[in-house]
Design brief:
Number of strands of chain A: 12
Largest sheet of chain A: 7 strands, parallel
Radius of gyration of chain A: 20 Å
Shape of chain A: globular
Strand order of the largest sheet of chain B: 1-11-10-9-8-7-5-2
Structural class of chain B: alpha/beta
Number of helices of chain B: 12
Strand order of the largest sheet of chain A: 1-12-11-10-9-8-6
Structural class of chain A: alpha/beta
Largest interface: A-B, 21 and 33 residues
Order of helices and strands of chain B: EHHEHEEHEHEHEHHEHEHEHEH
Oligomer: heterodimer
Helix content of chain B: 40-55%
Distance between the termini of chain A: 34 Å
Helix content of chain A: 25-40%
Distance between the termini of chain B: 7 Å
Largest sheet of chain B: 8 strands, parallel
Strand content of chain A: 15-25%
């Protein structure tokens, strides 16, 4: 049976792909930093050491090349540089946006802290945040590159708001800035943008403001640019089916961690967007077997047909040991290729008709 | 004459050096969180942290000195999290915040622990003659934050938690006030019928101390029935979160009256913007302008929430503003 096509997704299908079916494989973004990069950072931050800004830049360039290549080696169709230049997903952007200031670390849980920034005046866009990172990565590989960018709701929600009337107003102001950055990335050649909103689905009804922000973000972005939205560790029943109205091509969802216990949420009504399914758990430091990941990929086929399916790990993998992170990606790619072959051979049932509950 | 008293609901942030030192000593994972039987080095770091936060409160002239609850890794769930008959399991979200704690699962009788009392003893020694304030989770909130695999009945569980807290409180050193923190009364309001039990549970705890008892509520206003029942409890003051919700808090006060004392949460414990003392005083006056009767014996001026959400320097600045605001109000009142 020859597969249906999906123009937006299939622009990333490699030439000469072996199987008729294609399940796009990618990552969410972050990857463990090589130990020597952390060491280089310590030297750079040590005022008594000669290791300077230029040396550190060279080290991050090397790391970005290395991890991009590691993603290629694992066989991923779309690669990232593993966010080697970024420290944390809010801090990194807050340092680049005028209007933010830092007052010191705050607790998240136990002895895990982050430098939660304060918005003290109107937020303003000055220099580009990610264009250099994108151009470097794109020049280091022949494969398509995805650019993850923290979304405005999370940027607002994980900051202290001293300047705006409420967090919704701050979210919309930041959405304007994110839109400006994405326009610059698209001008630089980026075709796959992932907006990260881990704060979504953590408070009731927050889907409304995120929807409004997304409309602003994608305004004037050409249709062929693929826009994904990454959401994790929330209560998805709070946001589904409302999110289907969002102007995005793909939803990247963490589901392996909960052993797909929230899968049912997405079955009714029908999932009309593309699904980037989390198929390996980033909180378990053991590499899942290829067979296990194949079973996880098939969970995605309960929600969408093969042409709407993308697979990735649940979330960024930066907290895993590097060899485990690599193993998960390599097994994920192998599993995706196996599932494609089985789909080609008609060995997988892709009937998604919902069995009505017994008492219906 | 009304006395204005500057205070806080406790649960302070660790000084930055203590964040670093304790991260090193304890680690970052779930099993690294406080156990209640920590070794000498860890205990020593907490002692120095406690001395710093008590010293700062004395220095800025806060009218009530808290121990700081720096050891409370699990926030309000702490008294259970270190109990021998409680298992700590998965990491769960702390109300609607980007903060997490270990789910405490009660698996046996809630016998006497003494953990919080020992902290307060240490603070009492540091506080000299200053007025000491004890802090505990209210029984309803603590029951809501925990899971029960032993009592197997909601009412019995709540009563057992109240008895446990009362037992702990009886062993506390002398203290001037007790802040019982009850955010769950707002966020997860007790159902019809259970609101009465929640107030009875607070009564049980309040009866175990001679100190003035403030039941402090936050993240919104209480539903009116819950507030009405709370007024039946033998407590000295209810605390209101005027940062999050003004209208409904005023409505409750207008409709149902108030205790003889009142606590006003006027300073934002979750935002770095530091309020001016004059603005805090003006906000207190704004509240009193709305009420038919305002001859309170004691008015506590406080942050609305715990302050561990803040960077350390901002937390210090907020306490300083509260102390100055109470002084301003006191001058005006006389």
């Amino acid at each position: 049976m020859s597969p249906e096509t999906n123009e937006n997704r299939d622009q990333f299908r490699p030439e000469g792909h072996d199987n008729d079916h294609f399940i796009l494989t990618t990552v969410v973004g972050s990857y463990p930093k090589p130990k020597w990069l952390n060491r280089a950072k310590e030297l750079y931050e040590d005022p008594d050491h000669k290791f300077d800004a230029e040396d550190y830049e060279e080290a991050t360039d090397d790391a970005a090349r290395l991890i991009t290549e590691e993603h290629e080696r694992a066989g991923l169709d779309v690669v990232v540089d593993g966010e080697m230049r970024r420290n944390e997903m809010v801090e990194f952007f807050a340092h680049r946006i005028q209007g933010y200031e830092f007052n010191g670390p705050v607790k998240v849980w136990g002895h895990n802290y982050f430098d939660k920034p304060s918005v003290v005046s109107d937020v303003e866009y000055t220099d580009s945040w990610l264009v250099d990172e994108y151009e470097f990565t794109a020049s280091a590989t022949d494969r398509p590159v995805k650019v993850p960018i923290t979304g405005p709701y999370t940027l607002a929600n994980w900051s202290f708001n001293e300047a705006y009337e409420d967090d919704d107003e701050l979210t919309l102001a930041l959405a304007g800035l994110v839109n400006e950055e994405i326009e610059k990335l698209v001008d630089a050649g980026a075709r796959y943008i992932q907006i990260d909103e881990p704060a979504l689905a953590t408070t009731p009804d927050d889907h409304a403001i995120v929807g409004e922000a997304l409309e602003q973000i994608v305004a004037d972005i050409p249709e062929e640019v693929r826009i994904g939205l990454h959401v994790c560790y929330g209560d998805y029943s709070r946001i589904y089916p409302e999110i289907l109205e969002y102007p995005v091509d793909e939803f990247d969802l963490e589901l392996a961690n909960g052993d797909y216990d929230q899968l049912e949420v997405f079955k009714d009504p029908e999932f009309t967007a593309d699904l980037a399914l989390g198929v390996t758990d980033v909180h378990v430091a053991e590499v899942e077997s290829v067979a296990q990941i194949e079973r996880n990929i098939k969970k995605g086929l309960e929600i969408v047909p093969p042409e709407q399916l993308v697979v990735s790990p649940d979330c960024g993998v930066k907290l895993l040991p590097r060899e485990v992170a690599y193993g998960k990606m390599a097994n994920m790619v192998e599993a995706a290729r196996n599932v494609e072959a089985k789909l080609d051979a008609g060995e997988i049932d892709v009937d998604r008709s919902v069995t009505p509950p017994a008492d219906d | 004459m009304t006395a204005y008293v500057s205070t806080t609901p406790g649960l302070f942030p660790l000084p930055d050096w203590a964040k670093d030192e304790l991260s090193e000593l304890k680690g970052h994972q779930k099993h690294d969180l406080i156990s209640g039987d920590e070794g000498e080095e860890i205990a020593d770091a907490y002692e120095r942290g406690r001395a710093e936060v008590v010293g700062h409160q004395l220095e800025v002239g806060l009218d009530r000195v808290s121990e700081g609850q720096l050891r409370w890794d699990d926030m309000l769930a702490h008294p259970l999290a270190v109990h021998e008959n409680v298992d700590t399991r998965g990491i769960v979200r702390y109300y609607d915040n980007n903060n997490f704690y270990r789910d405490p699962v009660v698996t046996g009788d809630l016998t006497f622990s003494g953990d919080v009392g020992a902290e307060l003893e240490a603070a009492a020694e540091l506080a000299d003659d200053a007025s000491l304030q004890a802090v505990l989770p209210g029984p309803y909130s603590l029951a809501e934050l925990a899971s029960d695999e032993h009592y197997n009945d909601d009412a019995d569980f709540l009563a057992a938690i109240a008895d446990f807290l009362a037992g702990e409180l009886e062993a506390f050193p002398d203290h001037e006030t007790l802040f019982l923190l009850e955010p769950s009364l707002v966020t997860d309001a007790p159902s019809e019928g259970f609101d009465e039990r929640a107030s009875e549970a607070i009564d049980t705890v309040a009866a175990a101390t001679d100190a003035d008892v403030v039941t402090h509520t936050y993240w919104g206003a209480l539903e009116e029935k819950v507030y009405a029942h709370l007024l039946d409890a033998d407590i000295d003051a209810v605390g209101f979160d005027f940062v999050t919700e003004q209208e409904d808090s005023i409505y409750n006060l207008q409709e149902y009256g108030a205790t003889d004392d009142i606590a006003l949460g006027l300073v934002d414990g979750q935002n770095t913007l530091v309020e001016e003392p004059e603005a805090i005083r003006d906000r207190a006056e704004w509240v009193f302008d709305k009420l038919p009767v305002t001859d309170f014996d004691t008015v506590y001026l406080t942050t609305n929430t715990e302050t561990f959400y803040l960077p350390y320097a901002k937390y210090e600045a907020k306490l300083e503003a509260l102390a100055a605001a109470a002084e301003l109000s006191e001058v005006k009142a006389t």
